[in-house]
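Quality-control log, excerpt.
Job 1 of 2 completed; input and output follow.
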Amino acid sequence: MPTLSSRIHARSDLLSTEVDGEAVIMDVESGQYFVLDPIGARIWQSLAEPVQVAALCGILEGEYDAPLPVIERDVLALMTDLAAKNLITVE
């Protein structure tokens, strides 16, 4: 389960593209695809390289008008969901 101190990154074998501001992610191995809204797409872009969750939240705080605790809660919820779907690696 991801925490603020976890380092995360997207699996390198996934295919992804942006369509109308949303991220469309395809897991070729399982044949499943996933769609993230524009904010999720922005976060997905940040996962190309390993990043600490707390650092990612700090970046997002500068880009969006939301308090840091709300961003941290929402990012952790998304990371937990992505990890459960085996789309990211959590270190």
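Job 2 of 2 completed; input and output follow.
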Amino acid sequence: MSTKTLYRPVGQAELDLIQATHWKRFPPRLDWQPIFYPVLTEEYAVFIAQQWNTKDPNSGYVGYVLQFEIDENYIESFPVQNVGGPESLEYWIPAEELETFNDQISGGIHVIHEFRPEQETMR
């Protein structure tokens, strides 16, 4: 199986839910979240985690960047969405498709960056 590397910026609450799955699955979306959006580049995920999550009380004022591998044939069935500049690329996975998406993850979900207000990258 060929895989594609994707990234996901998250706050503390979402990270805790992922950890509870032994780093294997993303949690269901909340009622007001119709899509799940993994991003295509580490740089874009870092930007979101550092600039948004660290300023958001719902994220616990912390941002993490997660990295994972997903079946390439599966993820390529979704069009890439450009949500801003040329680096702002993500997939939009409908909330009702998230369980199937999780089944396509190869290996685990890994924390590769952690950001807190006014701090540089920590490992």
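Post-run check on job 2. The chain has four helices and seven strands.
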